[in-house]
Design a protein that fits this description.
The protein is of the alpha/beta class. The chain contains 5 helices and 7 strands; from the N terminus they run βββαβαβαβαβα.
Protein backbone atom coordinates (compact mmCIF):
# COMPACT_ATOMS: atom_id res chain seq x y z
CA UNK A 1 0.00 0.00 0.00
CA UNK A 2 1.43 3.38 -0.97
CA UNK A 3 1.74 5.59 2.06
CA UNK A 4 2.96 2.96 4.53
CA UNK A 5 6.39 1.56 5.17
CA UNK A 6 7.19 -1.45 7.31
CA UNK A 7 9.64 -1.45 10.19
CA UNK A 8 10.74 -4.26 12.44
CA UNK A 9 10.78 -3.61 16.15
CA UNK A 10 11.67 -6.74 18.09
CA UNK A 11 9.54 -9.46 16.53
CA UNK A 12 6.69 -7.08 15.76
CA UNK A 13 6.28 -5.52 12.36
CA UNK A 14 4.81 -2.03 12.51
CA UNK A 15 3.48 0.07 9.67
CA UNK A 16 4.59 3.69 9.63
CA UNK A 17 3.29 6.39 7.32
CA UNK A 18 5.41 7.54 4.42
CA UNK A 19 6.52 11.04 5.44
CA UNK A 20 7.24 14.04 3.22
CA UNK A 21 8.90 17.12 4.69
CA UNK A 22 8.16 20.37 2.84
CA UNK A 23 10.47 23.28 3.65
CA UNK A 24 8.93 26.40 2.12
CA UNK A 25 8.04 29.83 3.50
CA UNK A 26 5.19 30.42 1.06
CA UNK A 27 1.97 29.39 2.81
CA UNK A 28 0.10 29.22 -0.52
CA UNK A 29 2.67 26.74 -1.84
CA UNK A 30 2.44 24.77 1.41
CA UNK A 31 -1.34 24.58 1.01
CA UNK A 32 -1.07 23.45 -2.63
CA UNK A 33 1.51 20.82 -1.66
CA UNK A 34 -0.64 19.50 1.20
CA UNK A 35 -3.70 19.34 -1.07
CA UNK A 36 -1.72 17.41 -3.67
CA UNK A 37 -0.44 14.96 -1.04
CA UNK A 38 -4.00 14.44 0.23
CA UNK A 39 -5.19 13.74 -3.34
CA UNK A 40 -2.31 11.35 -4.06
CA UNK A 41 -2.79 9.35 -0.87
CA UNK A 42 -4.34 10.46 2.43
CA UNK A 43 -2.04 7.99 4.23
CA UNK A 44 1.05 10.04 3.42
CA UNK A 45 2.13 12.20 6.34
CA UNK A 46 3.37 15.67 5.51
CA UNK A 47 5.28 17.99 7.84
CA UNK A 48 6.15 21.57 6.95
CA UNK A 49 8.74 24.14 7.99
CA UNK A 50 8.87 27.79 6.94
CA UNK A 51 12.66 28.10 6.63
CA UNK A 52 15.90 26.18 6.98
CA UNK A 53 16.37 26.96 10.67
CA UNK A 54 12.91 25.62 11.55
CA UNK A 55 13.62 22.56 9.39
CA UNK A 56 16.89 21.83 11.21
CA UNK A 57 15.07 22.10 14.54
CA UNK A 58 12.50 19.54 13.38
CA UNK A 59 15.14 17.22 11.90
CA UNK A 60 17.08 17.30 15.17
CA UNK A 61 14.14 15.70 16.95
CA UNK A 62 15.15 12.08 17.29
CA UNK A 63 11.73 10.66 16.40
CA UNK A 64 11.44 12.66 13.14
CA UNK A 65 12.98 11.12 10.02
CA UNK A 66 11.18 11.96 6.79
CA UNK A 67 11.38 9.75 3.71
CA UNK A 68 11.64 12.68 1.27
CA UNK A 69 12.42 16.36 1.68
CA UNK A 70 10.98 18.91 -0.73
CA UNK A 71 12.99 22.14 -0.39
CA UNK A 72 12.40 25.69 -1.58
CA UNK A 73 15.51 27.81 -2.05
CA UNK A 74 14.25 31.35 -1.50
CA UNK A 75 13.36 31.63 2.19
CA UNK A 76 14.13 34.03 5.05
CA UNK A 77 16.51 33.32 7.96
CA UNK A 78 18.13 30.29 6.30
CA UNK A 79 17.59 29.70 2.61
CA UNK A 80 17.56 26.34 0.86
CA UNK A 81 21.21 26.36 -0.17
CA UNK A 82 22.26 27.23 3.39
CA UNK A 83 20.07 24.38 4.65
CA UNK A 84 21.71 21.94 2.23
CA UNK A 85 25.15 23.05 3.33
CA UNK A 86 24.34 22.93 7.05
CA UNK A 87 22.79 19.46 6.85
CA UNK A 88 25.06 17.85 4.26
CA UNK A 89 26.48 15.24 6.66
CA UNK A 90 23.37 14.40 8.69
CA UNK A 91 20.79 13.85 5.93
CA UNK A 92 22.69 11.67 3.49
CA UNK A 93 20.06 8.92 3.55
CA UNK A 94 17.16 11.35 2.98
CA UNK A 95 16.68 12.47 -0.64
CA UNK A 96 16.18 16.21 -1.08
CA UNK A 97 14.13 17.40 -4.03
CA UNK A 98 14.55 21.11 -4.63
CA UNK A 99 11.20 22.64 -5.62
CA UNK A 100 11.72 26.32 -6.40
CA UNK A 101 10.98 29.14 -8.83
CA UNK A 102 14.59 29.56 -9.95
CA UNK A 103 15.71 27.96 -13.20
CA UNK A 104 19.22 29.44 -13.14
CA UNK A 105 21.77 26.78 -14.18
CA UNK A 106 24.40 27.96 -11.67
CA UNK A 107 21.84 27.59 -8.87
CA UNK A 108 20.88 24.13 -10.10
CA UNK A 109 24.54 23.06 -10.22
CA UNK A 110 25.17 24.47 -6.73
CA UNK A 111 22.27 22.54 -5.21
CA UNK A 112 23.46 19.27 -6.73
CA UNK A 113 26.97 19.89 -5.42
CA UNK A 114 25.42 20.32 -1.95
CA UNK A 115 23.68 16.94 -2.17
CA UNK A 116 20.27 17.62 -3.69
CA UNK A 117 18.78 14.52 -5.36
CA UNK A 118 16.61 16.37 -7.86
CA UNK A 119 15.69 19.90 -8.94
CA UNK A 120 12.26 21.01 -10.10
CA UNK A 121 11.09 24.46 -11.13
CA UNK A 122 7.74 25.11 -9.47
CA UNK A 123 4.92 24.72 -11.96
CA UNK A 124 2.16 27.27 -12.47
CA UNK A 125 -0.74 24.84 -12.75
CA UNK A 126 -2.17 22.67 -9.97
CA UNK A 127 -2.35 19.64 -12.27
CA UNK A 128 1.38 19.96 -12.95
CA UNK A 129 2.11 20.13 -9.20
CA UNK A 130 0.07 16.97 -8.69
CA UNK A 131 1.81 15.09 -11.51
CA UNK A 132 5.33 16.07 -10.41
CA UNK A 133 4.83 15.29 -6.74
CA UNK A 134 3.05 12.01 -7.50
CA UNK A 135 5.91 10.97 -9.81
CA UNK A 136 8.60 11.79 -7.25
CA UNK A 137 6.87 10.00 -4.37
CA UNK A 138 5.99 6.96 -6.50
CA UNK A 139 9.58 6.74 -7.75
CA UNK A 140 10.85 6.77 -4.18
CA UNK A 141 8.48 3.99 -3.18
CA UNK A 142 9.01 1.99 -6.39
CA UNK A 143 12.79 1.99 -6.05
CA UNK A 144 12.72 0.78 -2.47
CA UNK A 145 13.53 4.00 -0.72
CA UNK A 146 16.51 4.77 -2.89
CA UNK A 147 15.60 7.77 -4.98
CA UNK A 148 19.13 7.84 -6.42
CA UNK A 149 18.49 4.50 -8.17
CA UNK A 150 15.45 5.81 -9.99
CA UNK A 151 15.96 6.18 -13.75
CA UNK A 152 14.33 9.61 -13.49
CA UNK A 153 16.92 10.82 -10.97
CA UNK A 154 19.50 13.14 -12.52
CA UNK A 155 22.18 11.34 -10.48
CA UNK A 156 21.90 8.12 -12.55
Amino acid sequence: MVGLKGTEEGNEKKEQPFTCFLIDDDTDDQEIFMTVIEEINPGIACVTAGNGEEAIDKLSQQQFKPDLIFLDLNMPLMNGQQFLEATQNCRKEIPVIVLTTSSDQATIDATFSLGASDYITKPDKFSEWRNIIREKINNWIKYGGSYANSPESPNT
